[in-house]
């Protein structure tokens, strides 16, 4: 009996070519560095750019000549880009990229601060840090809601509606009862109701999860807008004057320079948001619930064969996500503003971007939310100092940062394998 010899086929690694993701990023960063060095350096003035460590112009400050700073930090950004372009080891990619981006931002700030009118050519870092956290709060809660859902295999595009319903419920029931705590509970329930609808239609009736999320966002806008016009506009004192949570100061910690006044003189939402990030991270990666949640999001069939109640776990996690997002919505109406129609203004979608940018991790989502919060706060600051940049561009800065982060900086990411795929028990 004859046999046919099968020749061995040599398997070689796929040649990625010269233009890897690291080198492409390096080329972009090099271009930004050159732009900062030439353009920002030319537009900056010889005035001192002051970065004060307080809330005002006085006190300790970091100072640098505007032109020198813009050029120096531009060169640093270009050098970081050149290092990436030369092909630094992947383990150094994040560090070098971070240094380059921070240097680019500092070059830009040296230009803006030094060119500001006399008396406004300073940046109060305490206010910037505090504003960053305040503006990032709804994003933190929204991104955590996304983590809880999508790690379970359910796409949560309805974050916008959950935040909006939470803001509305907190304002309405907080005003009627005169209690911030009643308003907070109502806000959590309002967000959970939107999540419950998402869970029922996506898990029970297998409706497309993305489409369902968009429908729920429109439903929240319609319901809250209708009730706002019928109740809150007709009698704002009774229905839209919820009490506010006061700031809680933590002794000793509040006196830490720069960080203390920004982090440890905040309201309950700041402390709860940071605590939730820690709790969800530990629970997701260190507990049996977290292991089951991740297994359901990756391979629900295998999880089912091991005795995990897949549908029950998804229901529970989606509703839990709504509770979290509802509290995030209350951070608007029980701490900062009165309710207005569609007051979330797209923050739910930025929270979804923060979720992707943070690679479906609670801590990653926190850092991404702070990045977007800083972009928002920077736009506010530049408007206050009379920046020459058009106000329309400043208004779109947070959304531009969102697009750039998700499209360019995040690189290749992989969502949980079963994300958005309905599970039908065999």
UniProtKB/TrEMBL annotation:
Lineage top rank: taxon: Bacteria
Topology term for the membrane: Multi-pass membrane protein
Pfam families, sorted: BPD_transp_2
Localisation per UniProt entry: Cell membrane
Keyword vocabulary terms for this entry: Cell membrane, Membrane, Transmembrane, Transmembrane helix
Cellular component GO terms held in the UniProt record: plasma membrane
Molecular function (Gene Ontology), one example: transmembrane transporter activity
Transmembrane segments: 27-44, 64-85, 92-116, 128-147, 154-174, 180-203, 210-228, 268-285, 318-337, 349-372, 393-411
InterPro entries per the UniProt record, alphabetical: ABC_transp_permease
Protein name per its UniProtKB record: ABC transporter permease
């Amino acid at each position: 009996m004859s046999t046919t010899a099968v020749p061995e086929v040599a398997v070689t690694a796929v040649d990625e070519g010269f233009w890897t993701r690291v080198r492409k990023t390096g080329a972009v960063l090099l271009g930004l560095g050159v732009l900062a060095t030439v353009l920002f350096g030319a537009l900056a003035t010889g005035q001192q750019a002051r970065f004060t460590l307080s809330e005002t112009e006085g006190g300790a400050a970091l100072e640098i000549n505007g032109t020198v700073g813009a050029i120096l930090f531009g060169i640093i950004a270009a050098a970081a880009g050149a290092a990436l372009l030369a092909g630094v080891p992947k383990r150094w990619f994040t560090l070098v990229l971070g240094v380059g981006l921070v240097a680019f931002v500092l070059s830009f700030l040296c230009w803006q601060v030094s060119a500001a009118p006399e008396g406004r050519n300073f940046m109060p870092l305490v206010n910037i840090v505090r504003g960053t956290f305040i503006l990032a709060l709804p994003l933190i809660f929204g991104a955590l809601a996304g983590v809880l859902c999508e790690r379970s295999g359910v796409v949560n595009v309805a974050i916008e509606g959950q935040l909006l319903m939470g803001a509305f419920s907190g304002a309405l029931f907080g005003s009627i009862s005169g209690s911030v705590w009643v308003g907070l509970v109502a806000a959590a329930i309002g967000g959970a109701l939107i999540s419950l609808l998402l869970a029922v239609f996506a898990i029970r009736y297998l409706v497309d999860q993305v489409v369902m999320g968009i429908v729920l966002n429109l439903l929240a806008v319609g319901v809250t807008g209708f009730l706002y016009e019928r109740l809150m506009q007709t009698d704002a004192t009774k229905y839209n004057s919820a009490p506010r949570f006061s700031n809680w100061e933590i002794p000793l910690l509040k006196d830490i320079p720069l960080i203390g006044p920004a982090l440890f003189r905040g309201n309950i939402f700041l402390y709860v948001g940071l605590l939730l990030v820690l709790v969800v991270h530990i629970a997701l990666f260190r507990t049996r619930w977290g292991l089951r949640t991740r297994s359901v999001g990756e391979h629900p069939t295998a999880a089912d064969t091991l005795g995990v109640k897949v549908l029950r776990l998804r229901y529970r996690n989606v509703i839990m996500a709504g509770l979290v997002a509802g509290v995030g919505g209350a951070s608007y109406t029980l701490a900062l503003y009165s309710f207005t129609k569609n007051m979330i203004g797209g923050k739910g979608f930025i929270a979804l971007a923060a979720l992707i940018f943070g690679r479906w991790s609670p801590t990653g989502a926190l850092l991404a939310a702070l990045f977007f919060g800083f972009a928002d706060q920077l736009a506010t600051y530049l408007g206050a100092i009379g920046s020459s940049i058009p106000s329309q561009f400043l208004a779109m800065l947070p959304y531009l940062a969102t697009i750039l982060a998700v499209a360019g900086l995040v690189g290749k990411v992989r969502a949980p394998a079963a994300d958005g795929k309905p599970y039908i028990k065999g």
